[in-house]
Each structure stands twice: as C-alpha cells, then as structure tokens.
Design a protein that fits this description.
Strand order of the largest sheet: 3-2-1-4-5-6
Largest sheet: 6 strands, parallel
Order of helices and strands: EHHHHHEHEHEHEEH
Number of strands: 6
Strand content: 5-15%
Oligomer: single chain
Structural class: alpha/beta
Shape: globular
Length: 214
C-alpha cells in the first residue's frame, strides 16, 4: 500500500449517522427559533464539530444558543443511535482486510469521544477501534476544516502527514485533510463528488477503497 496510515472520518464513513443527526439538528434548531431544513443542516454543519453550530447561529442572528444545547442535542442523537444506527455497508470486511495486511488505521472525528463510542458500541465497531486509535475534535483547539485534528492523529500514530491518507464524506473534512498535506478519498454514498471537488479520488462502495489505496 502507498500509505503508512489510513485515517477514517466517523460519521457517514464508518457509521451511517449523518441522516439521523442532521434530521435531529435541523428539528432542534427550528424548535429554538432558527428555522433549518435537513438540507440546510447537511450544507452548513455536516462534518463539523458542534461549536460550528454555535458559531454559525451567532454569526447569522446575533443570538446565542441556550445553555445546555450540546447536552440536549447529544441526548437526542444518542437515543436515535440506540434505536436506529447501523454500520456503513462493507466497513467490517474492509477493516478486516486492513488488519490482515498489517496497515495501521485510526478514526479522527468531529464528534465527541462519547459520540464516537456510543456509535461504535451500537454497531460493533468498538472491537476495531481501541482507545489508541480514536481521535476527536475534543482533542484539539479547532475542528474541521482546520487541519489540527488530522495532524494530531498522525502525530499520535507516529506517521508523517504526507504518508497518511484520509477517508472523508464531507467538504469540511476534505478541506481539513488537504490543509494537513494529506491525500483524501471522498466517499460519495451520500455526498456527490462535485461537492468534494479537491479530493484525490472518489468511491461509493467500501469494497472499492483498498484498491484505490494500493
């Protein structure tokens, strides 16, 4: 393989959480007096950390979100995860092949550590991602599209950025990977390739990924 480390985004790449979380976010913001459609949520917040929601609402309206917004939002999301969350098709087989080939990998997500762990326990991915392979925007000062999270993951895994490849499904994530000096492959199962324009390449089925990275 051309790379020494594969860095996976989590939401939408490993677990099929984007439809759930963005539906909940749009409804909650609307409930709070900030009318937001599902499509608006995908456009503005997909791939970003929760502080992006606060920053965007403040910039657009001059109003802050209520104290406890994060806790309530996460509680609603976790309840939906417990009922409905599924692993992205093909991910366990793909991870098994990486392990068999001895290729290091990790996850670097805009979500909190708790969100990552809740999703992984529900879908069985916790067996593939022990503590040392899980990185969150909580670990750095700025979330995507800043490169900090991917650079942090590479440093912790002991691999130079130029020897890493990122697997992403959001424009924010692609921008972050590029800013980190990493190749990035865009997963287009949910986001059209045209919106991931600076990606190194694109794929829409996890069975295709390892062939692209070879």
């Amino acid at each position: 393989m051309r790379y020494e480390l594969v860095i996976f985004d989590n939401d939408g790449v490993l677990v099929d959480s984007e439809p759930l979380s963005n539906t909940i976010l749009a409804a909650y913001l609307t409930e709070l007096g900030h009318p937001t459609s599902y499509e608006d949520s995908l456009r503005d917040y997909m791939g970003g950390a929760v502080h992006r929601v606060h920053d965007t609402v403040l910039e657009r309206t001059g109003r802050t979100l209520p104290e406890g917004f994060d806790e309530e939002f996460h509680a609603r999301v976790f309840a939906a995860f417990a009922r409905e969350l599924e692993v992205v098709a093909g991910v366990p087989d793909m991870l098994a092949k990486l392990v068999a080939e001895g290729v290091p990998y990790c996850v670097a997500s805009s979500g909190s550590h708790e969100r990552i762990r809740v999703g992984h326990r529900k879908t069985g991915l916790d067996r593939w991602f022990p503590e040392g392979r899980v990185f969150s925007a909580q670990d750095v000062g700025r979330g995507k599209p800043a490169p900090d999270l991917f650079l942090h993951a590479a440093e912790r895994m002991g691999v130079a950025p130029e020897r890493c490849v990122v697997v992403e499904d959001s424009p924010l994530g692609v921008r972050a990977a590029r800013a980190a000096g990493m190749d990035v492959y865009g997963f287009t199962a949910m986001t059209p390739a045209a919106k991931l324009g600076t990606a190194t390449g694109y794929f829409d089925d996890m069975g295709q990924l390892l062939g692209l990275l070879a």
